[in-house]
Write a structure and sequence with these properties.
With about 260 residues, this protein is of the alpha/beta class. It contains 12 helices and 8 strands. The structure holds NADP nicotinamide-adenine-dinucleotide phosphate.
């Protein structure tokens, strides 16, 4: 079984470690953190090895996930020595060029928050220096956490806007529907469950029946009906144009942050 290491043992690392164990990818896992309390809880809960020394993780694992916050990347990587190990960074907005200041080759992943429940949607890009067998291994590894696509790094800013920030945008839409549903007299908890289930069910329906959005809109919006009445408002207010602007702003910001 391949030994997987984590540098940084916070929310993302904890969720990823649980997925690796429950999916039987490996139970040979070592994690480091500057915070001994986080290590203690992972050790007790999941039985993995832990250390406060990042170099020990690098020395004892074949594939290492760098799971510290973007602002801690320099601290976490400076001074560590890496040879053949596969270094995978999940730090949002940190480009390969920055990682390559510290390690000879790297994989940059843009995950999203649903990774915390094993439903990640994202993408990854390789630096130079990986062979086909290693690329296959990385694909299998990331597949444990959800759906990920290998892309050229230039596309990662668009992925950041779409699936990285996407959960925030969808939650915002949900807020809008929810507050009006309560105003219309529905109990808040019931309205919340109905909204959530509607979002999840819509995604499942599109995916499992291989429908495109136009098909689904046609299925739901009968002539003179309620959906048609609501859609008319969305069209008049040019909501699709606004959603486009929202994505454009996130994309622009991702590019700016990547330059720092
Ligand atoms: N959370 C998400 O949903 C999400 C989604 C997409 C991408 N990401 C990315 O995933 C990464 C991890 O996020 P997270 O939410 O898991 O963060 P987190 O919970 O703060 O975990 C990071 C851990 O790294 C520790 N740390 C800081 N400096 C270190 C060092 N030099 N060496 C070793 N450990 C160090 C932190 O300790 P202290 O707490 O004491 O500083 C903390 O325990 C981030 O780069 C983020 O951009 C997260």
């Amino acid at each position: 079984m391949i030994k997987v290491g984590f540098i940084g043992a916070g929310n993302m690392a904890g969720a990823m470690i649980k997925s690796l164990i429950s999916n039987n990818f490996t139970n040979s896992i070592v994690a480091s953190d500057i915070n001994e309390d986080k290590l203690k809880s992972l050790r007790n809960e999941l039985g993995i090895s832990t250390t406060t020394n990042n170099q020990e993780v690098v020395d004892s694992a074949e594939m290492i996930v760098i799971a510290v916050k973007p602002q801690h990347i320099d601290d976490a990587l400076s001074g560590i020595k890496v040879n053949e190990q596969i270094m995978i960074s999940i730090a949002a907005g940190i480009p390969l060029s920055k990682l390559l200041r510290y390690v000879p080759r790297a994989v940059r992943v843009m995950p999203n928050t649903p990774a915390l429940v094993g439903e990640m949607a994202g993408a990854y890009a390789f630096s130079e220096g990986f062979n086909e067998e290693e690329k296959k291994l990385v694909k299998e590894f990331l597949g444990v956490f959800g759906t990920v696509f290998e892309l050229e790094e230039k596309h990662i800013d668009a992925v950041t806007a779409l699936s990285g920030s996407g959960p925030g945008f969808l939650a915002y839409l949900l807020q809008g529907f929810l507050s009006k549903a309560v105003e219309l007299g529905l109990n808040k908890d019931i309205a919340y469950e109905l909204c959530l289930k509607t979002m999840k069910g819509t995604a499942e329906l599109l995916s499992r029946k291989n429908l495109n959005p136009e098909d689904l809109i046609r299925m739901v919006a009968s002539k003179g009906g309620t959906t048609e009445a609501g859609l008319k408002v969305l069209e008049e207010k040019e909501v699709q144009r606004i959603l486009g602007e929202c994505l454009e702003a996130a994309h622009k910001r991702s590019k700016e942050l990547g330059k720092n």
